[in-house]
Design goal:
Structural class of chain A: mainly alpha
Order of helices and strands of chain A: HHHHEEHH
Oligomer: homodimer
Largest sheet of chain A: 2 strands, antiparallel
Number of domains of chain A: 1
CATH superfamily of chain A: Winged helix-like DNA-binding domain superfamily/Winged helix DNA-binding domain
Distance between the termini of chain A: 36 Å
CATH class of chain A: Mainly Alpha
Shape of chain A: globular
Largest interface: A-B, 54 and 54 residues
Radius of gyration of chain A: 21 Å
Strand order of the largest sheet of chain A: 1-2
Chain lengths: 159, 159
DNA sequence: GGCTTTTGGTTCATGGTGTGAACCTACTCT
DNA sequence: AGAGTAGGTTCACACCATGAACCAAAAGCC
């Protein structure tokens, strides 16, 4: 390779870093706006919507599970779950083996709303990806995957 | 190509959409944590740090400009600016042409802190990109750029 | 069995982020 | 000069989130 041997760790040119930072900031902003818009659209709070979506993966969840998945203090979950229960989207059932635990699951209305939400969310992603040339889509998503891994690795370096 | 001609708009396979959504969610989470960590590290609030960074581009800013750049209500800016002024990082000077306006600019301490912050921030980006194979970096950032554009376009479609 | 300890959840106090309305002052436009 | 407009501040309010205190039930342990 024709690299300058004198420089010890130049590696990444400044303009790339600058672009990268700016792009990431923009994308984060977009994501935030989108999730707000989406919650609004379905008449939920953002946190509630995020919580509701967890029931796409599992039929029954406990507050503790939700707290872990959402990466949020358990006291916060109490509120969020209460909101969803009030709205009639999820319900509590007693755990037969442990009376401390409420098993949370979707009501029919919750199920139905979740279906709409996931459809809508998928549609949004589809729209975004449609602006990308078809032959680039796989490459981009692979890039993103690599980037995500890098970001997680970097994060874990900070304690 | 060997596509089924019967389906009108299949286009993007489901697994791609799914990956995409999950990756974006993860990355957004990472970004959020990082900016929180960063603010903490420099003893600022997140909003204050974001505000401070704006002074990297321009020497003088008004509350109105900041509000536009941060995409936040002007009442919020009052608070954020007050915080930065209290901390001695920015100062207000009267606008000679319009006494309603305060021209905001960095104090020496603010300047110094900003320098540290941008250095740190650049370093974080560098670390992240270093986990990416060097020959892929440019490609990934170009992908990101394309994706950002798509996301903005998609966002603008929703009113 | 009785004791402590742990665990799942709730409530409360607190603080950061943000909006929108009301308001004041100063500028602008006739 | 008077009406309207623009920059800022303050206030009331809502959401997101944490940590501490607390309770009840379960698990461990003599």
């Amino acid at each position: 390779m024709n690299q300058k041997p004198s420089s010890p760790a130049p590696e990444i040119p400044a303009f790339l870093l600058r672009d990268f930072q700016e792009i990431m900031a923009d994308m984060a902003q977009c994501c935030k706006e989108r999730s707000q818009f989406q919650a609004d659209r379905f008449g939920l709070l953002e946190a509630e919507l995020r919580c509701l979506m967890l029931f796409g993966d599992e039929r029954y969840l406990t507050s503790k599970h939700i707290a872990r998945k959402m990466n949020v203090a358990k006291s916060r979950i109490s509120k969020i779950v209460a909101g969803l229960v009030d709205r009639g989207l999820i319900k509590r059932s007693p755990d037969p083996d442990d009376s401390r635990i409420s098993l949370l699951s979707l009501t029919p209305e919750g199920q139905s709303l979740l279906t709409q939400v996931t459809a809508y969310s998928r549609e949004m992603s589809r729209i975004i990806l449609q602006f990308i040339a078809p032959e680039q889509r796989v490459a981009i998503i692979e890039s993103l995957g690599a980037l995500r891994t890098s970001m997680k690795t970097a994060r874990d370096l900070l304690e």
